[in-house]
Amino acid sequence: MRHPLFLAAALLLGAALFAPAVLLAQDGTSTTATGISRSMNPAISVNGLFRGQASRDDTSADLNGFMIDGVEAQFSAVVDPFWRADVLIGMHPEHSDHSDHGDEAEEGHGADRGVDGEGAYVDGRALPGGLGLKLGKFALPFGKHAPLHMHQYPFADAPVAVSSIFGDHLLSDTGALGAVTMPFPWYSDVQVYAVDGGAMPFDGTSKSVAAGGRFVNLWDLTEDSTVELSGSYTQGPDARHPGENLKMGVYGADLTWKWVSSARTRGPALNVTLEALWPDYEESEGTPQGWYALAQYRFHRNWWAGVATGQYDSCLLY
Known about the structure:
Radius of gyration: 25 Å
Strand order of the largest sheet: 1-2-3-4-5-6-7-8-9-10-11-12-13
Number of helices: 2
Largest sheet: 13 strands, antiparallel
Structural class: mainly beta
Distance between the termini: 82 Å
Helix content: 10-25%
Order of helices and strands: HEEEEEHEEEEEEEE
């Protein structure tokens, strides 16, 4: 009798294990291959940035050979009709700040690589009054380049005017951001935020928070072209004087003209961007400023060619 009882128990256990999978398959929320529900699984994407370079005048390893600039993974999911959640994890070389400017940089082939959270936030969707709300760690809206991840850079390196002020990494911090679309005849958006001040160039050990905002205006010039004029500002504790509670601010303005051929899908396109930045330190010498300009042309689907130039008042590098 032990064998029939054992067989009956096995059948009951199998029915208990596979019944949920059958029900999930019937309501369309599982895969046909595994029977595992996908209803709570996030969308996942991975980006990698690989570089090869050679220098005729410098034989150091930093400027010759191949390297991985970064790998980033993003997990996104809709929480409910009003909120979306995103988590971004990145692996990058340990970027040096410019406080030891003049010392040997610890980047390149021999640099340590760190894994950290690029972002983890919830984003309000269709909130009352057309308001937007973002809570968590997110990219701060300042200018065109500072909020970009490395794989989104127009060129291999960040413009010197941007990296000299905000470092050569994503400008992100933890806090809250609110946004509202202005009732103008053209597209106009205002974003304001308050964060804990842990991002470069702020002093993360200070009790003072950092705050700022961005004002975006976009006009349609023709069926194929648009122009965007925006201004940004951020302020927080100055990382150059830790513990002294000194303030610093940065003003920014950017102008972007875009043309995309309406005759062909993913056809020719041209982007031209000009951005200027003016740091305002509570205790400093001189009035630093920086700018860059770039142009990119898409000549075939995902292939672009571009040129860029710019400068920064190097006397106040970190």
